[in-house]
Write a structure and sequence with these properties.
365 residues, Rossmann fold, globular
Length: 365
């Protein structure tokens, strides 16, 4: 179902709209891009480079799908530069949370992280995602943590194959929200958001980026915020920050005590809002969790470093599935997955970079 005229958007945004469809989830239209796997052969990197074919844990048809949960204030479009690589060998599902992108933005809606989690569960049921891998960024991480909390309590309808967390302020004492976010949480927040000042938005986003990004990418983000008067909902949507603080113990505890759920952290080592110290604390508090640092990357890895981000994700998923396949040979009973063995420490960025703090897949204890 598509009820939006793509001609009303810039060409890149209109093309993104044309790739997806709307699903009715609990009476709300949710925009979804459901991409099937391209092939089982050699994959192409988002930067055009070829990757040699590697042994696969299973055929394309049997590989668990990937579900991506975007952050604030973006949308599924944040991931458009990674989609070709991510979908080479598995189905990939991207969607816009209510209040974001091309999904509905009703005034009478709580925008609670718990309701957003309900949307994820309903969408998974609608699309037949029984046990997906989940990659979550920013606000999406809080939703993923609630999925894990429900899983622990046997309340999740399906299961999770693995979880990758990216750039999220899960520890309130270490998170550094932007000036605009602070204003949105005040009594004048609704009026401030309602002004729809694109210059202020672009300035705030620019401060979270550590690598050059095409202006069209940020323009596309703002363009989708304006759709359906989304700028007038920013103060409501930003209230997730209060919930993130209020339920920190619930969600950190869920991550720390989850069983048979491979967990990986992917972080820009220069993220000015969800600082690298957050990732380091998580890695220390959750035994066996790996942390991949991306050099000279800020808060938006899929925008700032799409090729590196996609490669880190696909490499992680390959390892998770290879480890599971090794434990569960054909015709064997299928136990739940365990954390895959850590890779030898290696660099996540180009060899020309000299930042000694950037390491990839280093297991911290």
């Amino acid at each position: 179902m598509r009820l939006i005229a793509s001609a009303s958007f810039s060409p890149p945004v209109a093309a993104w709209l044309e790739r997806g469809n709307h699903h009715n989830i609990s009476g709300r239209r949710v925009f979804v891009i459901d991409t099937p796997a391209v092939s089982a052969g050699a994959a192409s990197h988002a930067d055009g480079g070829a990757r040699a074919e590697e042994p696969r844990a299973s055929s394309v048809g049997s590989r668990a799908p990937l579900l991506v949960l975007h952050g604030f204030p973006g949308s599924s479009y944040d991931w458009q530069q990674t989609l070709v690589e991510l979908s080479q060998t598995r189905r990939v599902v991207l969607f816009d949370f209510p209040g974001f992108g091309f999904s509905d933005k009703p005034e009478r809606y709580s925008y609670s992280l718990f309701e957003q989690t309900d949307v994820v569960e309903a969408l998974c049921e609608r699309l037949g995602l029984v046990r997906p891998h989940v990659v979550a960024h920013d606000m999406g991480v809080s939703v993923a943590c609630e999925l894990v909390a429900r899983r622990q309590r046997k309340l999740l309808k399906g299961d999770l194959a693995s979880l990758m967390i990216m750039s999220a302020g899960v520890y309130d004492d270490l998170a550094k929200i932007t000036t605009s976010q602070k204003v949105l949480l005040t009594p004048i927040g609704a009026a401030f958001g309602g002004l729809g000042i694109g210059a202020v938005f672009r300035q705030q986003i620019a401060r979270t980026l550590m690598r050059p990004v095409e202006s069209e990418q940020v323009d596309a983000m703002w363009e989708q915020i304006l759709y359906l008067d989304g700028h007038k909902r920013l103060s409501q949507v930003a209230s997730y920050l209060r919930e993130r603080t209020r339920f920190e113990d619930r969600w950190i505890s869920a991550l720390r005590t989850s069983e048979n759920l491979p967990l990986h952290l992917l972080w820009g080592n220069r993220d000015p809002t969800s600082t690298i110290e957050i990732a380091e604390r998580l890695a220390h508090q959750i035994p066996g969790t790996e942390l991949t640092r991306l050099f000279r990357v800020g808060h938006f890895p899929p925008i700032e470093a799409p090729a590196e981000t996609a490669n880190a994700i696909t490499s992680w998923l390959d390892r998770v599935e290879s480890a599971e396949a090794a434990r569960n040979p054909p015709n064997a009973k299928q136990p739940a997955p365990a954390q895959p063995p850590a890779q030898p420490e290696s660099r996540a960025a180009s060899a020309s970079e000299k930042d000694p703090s950037a390491r990839t897949a280093s297991t911290l204890h």
